[in-house]
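Lab notebook, bench 4. Still working through the backlog of constructs that have no structural model yet. Next entry is a single chain of 250 residues. Request: give me the structure tokens for it.
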Amino acid sequence: MNTTFSVGTVLSTGFRVWLRNLVPFLLITAVFYAPPWIWAWQAVQIEPTVENFNAVRTVAAVASYLTMPINVFVAATLSYGVVMELHGQRATIAACMTTGLSRFFPALAVAVLSVLCIAVASVTVVGGIIVYCMLFVATPVAVLERAGILGALSRSAALTKGHRWGILGLFLILLILSVATIYLLHAAVLDSASLTVETAFANLRSQVYVGYVHEVVLGSLGAVMTSVSYYLLRAEKEGTTASELAAIFD
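Model written out:
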């Protein structure tokens, strides 16, 4: 397998790993993402009135935003599955969840600090983009290297140095894929023929269902791509093998 970091290598390796573990990775992601979307699903079951519509729409939007911090669970959990697949072994759902959760709190702390750094740097758009690319693999570092919070950020910056244009290209490709799929899904299920309150509620229910499916699919794929990027960066810069990464979990 080509272990040189490039957008093409990340995508080809990432899709291969994701598709070979599609069912367990989707199930893991679906379990973690379920709570806010169950809340949104319950909210859209109320009587379809104009007053209720605005309240329910707010709940659906909040549920979507809550998926973002929950993605730390997914990233920490799927990192183990990705490493095992690259090592030539298939990780069970139970093993992924147990290993991922044992490293959740360091990963969460690193993710929170990363977001704060990106937010501060986003005073200028270019600054925010640069910091995002620098910290792209901070979560896998936190899970696999136990480098500490600040150590994970500096380690990610070191690993991504020289490849930040590629990371930006990867981000844009995944963003376009996400926007395109949600647009197509909405176009397939939403009824734009009438503008009644009942139709608006029906569309909102469809948005909740579609939103959940979309988040599960793209969330799991994004987590896999991040972990694969981490592996390829280490393989290229340090000659690290998948077997050496897998040995971390022994």
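Notes after review: Residues 197-238 form the longest helix (42 residues). The mean pLDDT is 85. Flag for follow-up if needed.
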